[in-house]
Design brief:
By secondary structure, this protein is α/β, with parallel strands linked by helices. The chain has helices spanning 21-36, 56-71, 78-85, 101-107, 125-134, 154-167, 183-193, 224-228, 231-249, 258-271, 294-297, 398-402, 411-421, 430-450, 465-472; strands spanning 11-16, 45-50, 88-92, 113-118, 143-146, 173-175, 207-215, 280-285, 308-314, 324-330, 337-344, 362-368, 372-380, 389-397, 455-457. The strands form two sheets. Strands 14-13-12-11-7-10-9-8-15 form a nine-stranded mixed beta sheet, sandwiched between helices. The chain has a six-stranded parallel beta sheet with strand order 3-2-1-4-5-6. Helix 1 crosses helix 2 (56-71) and helix 9 (231-249) crosses helix 10 (258-271). The structure holds 6-O-phosphono-beta-D-glucopyranose. InterPro entries: G6P_DH, G6P_DH_AS, G6P_DH_C, G6P_DH_NAD-bd, NAD(P)-bd_dom_sf.
Amino acid sequence: MVSRVIPVEEFDLVIFGGTGDLARRKILPGLFRRFLSGQMPAGSRIIGAARSDIDSDGYRQMIRDAISEFGGAEKSETGRLNDFIAQLHYLRVDAKGEAGWKELHELIRFKVVNAFYFSVAPSLFGDLAERLHTFKIADNDSRVVVEKPFGRDLVSAQELNDTLAEHFDETQIYRIDHYLGKETVQNLMAVRFGNMLFEPLWNNHYVDHIQITVAETVGVGGRGAYYDKSGAMRDMVQNHLMQLLCLIAMEAPSQFDADAVRDEKLKVIRALQPIDPHHIVRGQYDVNGDEPSYREDAENPKSFTESFIALRCEIANWRWAGVPFYLRTGKKLKARTSEIAVVFKDIGHSIFPGDEKRHRNILAIQLQPNEGMQLQVTIKEPGPGGMRLIDVPLDMTFAEALGPDADDTDAYERLIMDVIRGNQTLFMRGDEVEAAWAWTDPIIEGWKARNDVPKLYDQGSGGPEDAMALMHREERRWREIKE
Ligand code: BG6
């Protein structure tokens, strides 16, 4: 299956923080792949802007190296890489001073789409936004792209929103949550709203509970300084898991357009009930032989920050009242996997003698690394000797079903192209981010007030024992974490 490439208009994309980690690892390699698929029109330019004292040639070399390292450019693509690199420019710009801004004004073209990617610390958003206006670099059609973390609580998120709103309209602001750019995350909407089969069952009459798991095998080594001030709640739940929850729980928007989708997501977040502290388990990975503990990785021997969290929440609306949603995410777990499982209620009465098992249909959607869907159904165990029932998965691994050329577009490339197209559907609106913080803030404040200490868990496990108990005491169990 060959993916369809929809061309975009010619553009100038300025990346503030253009020499940074995200730019080198994700943004530029992603743009190169879009270039290879013919989606970057001739004449489009990418302008790296940062403090480093290099020129455009130095920048081109830096990005050439980055693409070889992170972008997997094949030898056969060297010629194409040269063509792409020729579209790169660099300007030394001081976010807090005067340097570089006049030059940027002269470089930017207003007759093509122009976008400004703030791949910098949020504390610089205000300075950048202000200078883009003062130096008349951005106009009413320009777009700004901002990265997570979007604040660390409601107040700081509101401040960021206000700062951006001083210079840009909401329709110009693209807040990235890269989970929304993942192929299968979008597929959640296709599965729900493109099929008749699931919708009638998608409610508290038929669904027992829903599990959302985002498990990682990596630790926090190398980014301990950031992570230790954040923890799994701020780093993953407030944004990525919350977005997955919204897509799985929201009502059908009247159409697939930015505000219709975001209105429905917002309603879900606003309907989330405050959580009872007994319904949350926080964990920290322990030392494992030569593998450092979380506290060593974070270089904070007294850290109370969680590298794992499991929680049970409820959405107070007609569709979901009474249905628990169990969310968990953590570092240094058994396998890297992201999965959503919709566990249906068991049948009320079995007509088969001796069949005492509570059979349940489960729709499991794997987001990564092996994208696919399984529907667990109950059938007769083949062979003579009466009616014995077994549960088997109807399995659809997308790579098998859709062929080896199934689209492997990375989240960042898809999202950047959406910015150029002016499509905000897969970006978070300001009110959504604020509502998510309004829900998480009291939880985090509760931990602080109670001096909550995370439970230690073994590296390579499924998290602390208490996370299992969170389910077991309600006679449910987590699905196994496996690739
Ligand atoms: C980032 C978090 O937003 O998402 C990281 O800051 C996390 O801590 C990462 O590792 C996970 O993203 P992915 O795409 O690898 O699942």
